[in-house]
Amino acid sequence: MMSSILPLKHPPGTLAETPGALPQGWSAARLRRRLAERAIETLLMLAALVSVFTTAAIVAILVWESVVFFRTVPLLDFLTDTQWTPLFDDAHFGIIALLSGTLTTTIVALLVAVPLGTILAIYLSEFAPFRVREVAKPFLELLGGIPTIVYGYFALLFVTPVLQKIYPELPGFNMLSAGLVMGIMIIPYVSSLSEDAMRAVPMSMREASYAMGATRLQTALFVVTPAALSGLASSYILGISRAVGETMVVAIAAGMQPNFSFNPTEPAATITAYIVQVALGDLPHGSIGYQTIFAAGLTLLLITLVFNILGHFLRKRFREAY
Amino acid sequence: MIPKSIGASSSESGVAEMRRLIARHKTWDWLFGLLGTLALLFATLVFAALFGQMLINGTPQLSWEFFTSFPSRRAASAGILSAWVGTILVMLVTAVVAVPLGIGAGIYLEEYARKNLLTDIIEINVTNLAGVPSIIYGLLALGLFVYQFGLGQSIAAAGLTLALLILPVVIVATREAIRTIPQNIREGAYACGSSKWQVVSHHIIPYSLPGIMTGVIIGLARAIGETAPIITIGALTFIAFLPPSPFSSPDHLLSFEWLLAPFTVMPIQMFNWISRPEEAFQANAAAAGLVLLVMTLSMNALAIWIRYHFRKKIKW
Questions:
Q1: How far does the CA of residue B137 sit from the closest CA of chain A (Å)?
Q2: Residue in A48, A158, A247 closest to B53 by CB
C-alpha cells in the first residue's frame, strides 16, 4: 500500500544501474515483493489451519472406526449394558461399566481439588503478601508441570500404602488413591484459573466494600467471590474435563479391570485406562477389540467437549461482566 | 449482621460490643489466612513426599551405568540408555514440527487474520484442542500416522503426535506475547515503509521471542512427560538397541533412517518398570522418575525464569 507512494526498500543495484528507467525497475521489485508477501501470508494461514485439520482428523477417525463398531454392537447395548468384557467369548459392551470408574475417580478428585483450589485462589488473590504470592504462584505452576506418570507412581507406591495403614482392607488398586492424587494434580489448574477470575474483579468493588467497614474475609467471600463466580465455575468445569481425560494416574493406581461400581475403595477401570489396557496388548488392526477403543475414545471426547464448551461459555461471561 | 446497639454507640456497652464484633471478624480474617497458609503447606508437603519417596527409592539405582545401559530383564543392571536417547529424538521431531507451525499460526491469528468466519473457526478450534485429553491424540495417531500413513510405531509417529498435542500451547503463548507489543511499534515501522512481513520479522518476532520461548519450553516439558498418547500408538515394547545414527550414511549426508526406527522414551520406560510385579524394578522406576522429574522441572523453571526476567526488563 505504502510502497506505491514511496518505496524505500528495493533490491540493491536496481537504482544505481537504471537511474533513468525507474518505474520499470520499481514495478518488478514491487511485484516480487508483493508475491513474496502473499506467499508468506498463505504459508502462515496454512500453519493456522493445521489446528482445524487436526480437529477434523480426530473427529473423522473416531467416528469412522466407531461406525464400524456400532454396526456390530447396537447403540442401545452400548449405553445400557452394565458389563464391559469386549475381549471375552461372552462379549459385553456396556460403556457404563467404564463410565462408573471415570465418574467415581472424577468425583473424588473434585472433592480434593475444588475446596483446596478455591481456598488457594482466594488466599493468593486477596490475602497473601506480595512476597508469598511471588513464590507460591511459580511453585504451583511447577506442580502442574509434573508428568502424570510420576503422579501415578506416587499414587500406587505412596498414597495407597499410606491409606492401607488407615484402612487395611483397601486393595492395592483402588479408585480412592487414584482420585485423591488426580485431585492434587488438578489443584494448580483450578487455583490459577480461579485466581485469574478473582483478579479480574475491579479494585473499586473491593474498595467500596472496605469503605463500608468490611474485613478482608467478608470482602473476599461476599464481594469478590460472587463477582467472580462464573470464572470460578468455569475453572471447576475445566478441572472436571481434565479429570475425566486423565489417563496414567488411573491406569496405574486404579487397576484396569472394568467394574460397575461407585465405591471408591474398589478397583475399577476408567474409559482412559481401558484404552491404555488395549493398547498394551497386541490387538490386530481392524478387529472388534481395536474398534472398541475408538468407540470409548469418542465417548470420552464427547464428554470433555460438553464440559469444555460449558467452561468456555462461563469464562466468556465473566470476561464481559465489567 | 450489624447489631442494633451500634446505633447507640455513644454508650459504653455499644463501643465494647463493636470492639468485640471487630475483634471477632479480625479473628476470622486471621483464621482464613491460616487456612490459606495450611493449604500452601499441604501442597508443599505433597511435593516433598513425592520427591522424597522417589529420592529414597531411586538414588541407590542412579549411577553412570544407569544412563549407559539398556533395559534388561535383571533389575540391577537395567538402564535408561534407549529411553533418554529416544526422548531426545522424539522431542527433536516434536520441536521441528510444532515450533514453526505454532509460531506461524500465532502470528497469522494476531497480525494477518481478518475478522471473518474462518478466523473464528480457527480460534474456537485452538481453544477446544487445548482441552482435548491427550489420549485422544493417541487414538488420532494410531488411526492416522501408524496405519493410514504407514509410519508404524516409529519416532516420527510419536514426534508428530506430541507436536499436535503441544501446538495449542505454542499458539496461545505466541499470541499472548504478540499482544503485549504496543501498536505504535507497528505504526512506526509502517511509517518507514516496511511491508507487513518486514514488520513481523524485524519487530514482532524479536520482541515477542521471550514469551514465545516460554511457551515452547513449557510445551516441550509437557511433551517429555506425556505417556498416554505414546502407549496408545502401541510403543510399549522392549527396546534394547539405539536407532540408527543420523551420521551413519555412507555418502556423508545426514541419514534420516532413525525417523522410522522403533523406540522407547523415558515415561514409557518408567511405566514399564512400574507395572512389573517384581519389587526390584520399582527402584528403577523411581530412578527413571527422578530423571524425568528433573528434566521437566528444570525446563519449567527455565520457562518461568525467562518470563520473570524479561517482564522486568522490557518497558515499552
A1: 7
A2: A158
A96-320, CATH topology level: MetI-like fold (1.10.3720)
Between B36, B109, B222, which is nearest A119 by CB? B36
Helical spans, DSSP H, in A73-199: 75-80, 96-122, 130-144, 148-154, 160-166, 175-199
Closest CB from B37, B131, B136 relative to A58: B136
Taking contacts as CB-CB distances below 8 angstroms, the residues of chain A near B298 are: none
Report the gap between the CA of B68 and the closest CA in chain A (Å).
22
Amino acid at B112: Y
**Three-class SS of B260-289:** HCCCCCHHHHHHHHHCCCCCHHHHHHHHHH
What pLDDT sits at residue A23?
Answer: 55
pLDDT, tens digit (0-9, with 9 covering 90-100), for B3-13: 554 444 457 78
Q: In this predicted structure, what is the pLDDT of residue A182?
A: 95
Would you call B125 and A301 a contact, using CB atoms and an 8 Å cutoff?
no
Closest listed residue to residue A231, CA positions, set A202, A204, A198, A203: A198
Neighbours of B106 (CB within 10 A): 28
Q: Which of A52, A148, A279 sits opposite B232 (nearest CB)?
A: A279
User: In A, which residues are within 8 Å of B289 by CB distance?
Assistant: 149-150, 153
* Of B54, B135, B193, Cβ closest to residue A7: B193
Q: What are the residue ranges spanned by the domains of chain A? A: 2-72, 96-320
pLDDT digits 0-9 by tens, B111-145: 998 888 888 888 888 988 888 999 999 999 998 88
Report residue B248's pLDDT band, with 50, 70 and 90 as the boundaries: low
Cell, residue A113: 481439588
Please give the C-alpha separations between residue A304 and each of A241, B134, B167, B290, in angstroms, as whole numbers. 5, 12, 19, 31
Nearest to A244 by CA among A113, A66, A82, A68: A113
| A116 pLDDT above the threshold of 70 | yes
pLDDT digits (tens, 9 = 90+) for B159-187: 999 999 999 999 999 999 999 899 999 99
Q: Does A308 touch chain B (CB under 8 A)?
A: yes
Distance, in Å, from the CA atom of A91 to the CA atom of A93, rounded to the nearest integer, reads 7
Interface ipTM above 0.90: no
Put simply, whether A30 touches B (Cβ < 8 Å) is no
Q: Which chain B residues are Cβ-neighbours of A247 within 8 angstroms?
A: 133-135, 227-228
Chain A segment 59-98 residues within 8 A of B by beta carbon are: 61-62, 64-65
Q: Is the dihedral of CA A148, A152, A158, A162 positive or negative?
A: positive
Tell me which chain B residue has its CA closest to the CA of residue A239.
Answer: B131
| CA dist., res. A32 & res. A38, Å (int) | 10
What lies within 8 Å, CB to CB, of A146 at 6+ separation is A185, B50, B225, B293, B296, B297
